[in-house]
Input
Amino acid sequence: KRSPMLPRSWGQRALQADMDAWSRQREAKARLSVMGTNAWPAVPRLIELLSHRELRIRVTTVEVLGRIRAEGHPAMQALRDRCSRPERAVEAFCWLLTGRNEFASEYDPALRRFALECLGRSGASAKPAVPKLIKLVGSDEDHELRAVAVAALGAIGAKAGGAGLLKPTIR
Output
């Protein structure tokens, strides 16, 4: 006896819908990224997307924010107050530090620096990122990137209620 299954066309439709969504996301990312600061009106909505349930969307959002130089936007100064699920944003920032892009290469240093600055602004909610930051500080990465990681650790430690976060880096 044959087991009940979903019709094959349902699976094909779901796959096509996924591909269409991915294609629209890539298109939006490309268009916003080339706009630079002209895309700043989108920053408040992009900050909302940092709380999206899908990591892929959050990482793409961080990429766009970094490429449009959103660190100078007033909404970014109050990032932790504006983000409804800061732990999700922190996960996306960490992905840019340690993850790889769609071409399996590391993200460029400017995007990684942007992610580090955002982690520092995220306050105590960025505490889960501390081990990755400590690892970055102790690595042979670009010295400027390591300096920004130290600053982020200091900001997270101060906002988390203790400077003890830096103790593991001192030998």
